[in-house]
Structure formats: structure tokens, C-alpha cells
Amino acid sequence: MARLSTHVLDTAHGVPAAGVRIDLHRLDADGRTHVATATTNADGRTSEPLLAGETMPTGVYELTFHAGRYLRDRGVDLGELPFLDEIVIRFGIASATAAYHVPLLLSPYGYSTYRGS
Q1: Are the CB atoms for 43 and 8 separated by under 8 Å?
Q2: Of 39, 45, 50, 46, which Cα lies nearest the Cα of 73?
Q3: Residue 87 is inside which H or E element, if any?
Q4: Which of 21, 53, 58, 88 could be disulfide-bonded to 66 (CB atoms 3.0-4.6 Å)?
Q5: pLDDT for 76-115, tens place per residue?
Q6: How many CB atoms lie under 10 A from the CB of residue 18?
Q7: Which of these, 37, 51, 32, lies nearest to 90 by C-alpha position?
Q8: What is the model's pTM?
Q9: Domains along the chain?
Q10: 98 contacts 5 by C-beta, under 8 angstroms
């Protein structure tokens, strides 16, 4: 089954990042189309894949992680103009039948991502 999933780990606090809003958009010649919105659960994962099925459309996508809101809710003082607020990861889905996993490792002043399994 084809799917796109994600999870968020709060590396500053050493915990899964629960309550992070994530927006998924697809980019094409006509612009940017909203596909899905999800919020991470207590395990830092979305309850369901952001995309799933026998196949999924190939192309360029963006995941927007609302990190600033999450960090503020945890009591982190980000100041008036946070270094990181919304983290946008642009990636390609080349195979309509593959599983894609895009995790985010998050702290107030840095992040990392990779294609997971």
C-alpha cells in the first residue's frame, strides 16, 4: 500500500512532540493545493497516514510543521521573532506505490529530517 507518514520528535526536551499541527500541500503548475491537515498524537505521530491507498499522486509536496506554536505551548520563550516558526519541508514522491516517511527532529534553534521507513 502506498502511504505518506510523518512523526515529530522534540529533541530539546527528549520527548515525542504531541500536538504539532501539520499541513500537507501538493505543488504543480497551477500552484499549491491543500491536501490534508493533521495533529500529532502523544507518540508524536499522526493517527493516520497523510496519504494512503493503492496508489498516490506523484509530484512535489510540502509539509508545514507549526513548530513555533508547539514550542510556545511547551513554555519555550521564542521571543517576538522566533528563529523557527513554521518549518516547511519540500520533497518529491516519485513512486505512486511506495511508502514515504518524513520525520522531523525539532528544537527551538534547529531541525533535521530524512526519508525514513
Answers
A1: no
A2: 39
A3: strand 86-93
A4: 21
A5: 999 999 999 999 999 999 999 999 999 999 999 999 999 9
A6: 17
A7: 32
A8: 0.95
A9: 2-113 (2.60.40.180)
A10: no
If 0-12 CB within 10 Å is exposed, 13-18 middle and 19+ buried, where does residue 27 land? middle
Q: Which residues in 39-68 are b (16+ Cβ under 10 Å) and which e?
A: ebeeebbbeebbbeeeebeeeebebbbbbb
> How many CA atoms lie within 13 Å of 101's alpha carbon, on the beta-carbon side?
9
Grid coordinates belonging to 49: 497516514
Q: Which residues are annotated as part of the binding site?
A: 7, 45, 114
| DSSP 8-state secondary structure symbol assigned to residue 84 | -
Annotated binding site for substrate: 7, 45, 114
Distance of alpha carbon 76 from alpha carbon 34, whole angstroms: 29
The three cell numbers locating residue 111: 531541525
Q: At 3, which amino acid appears? A: R
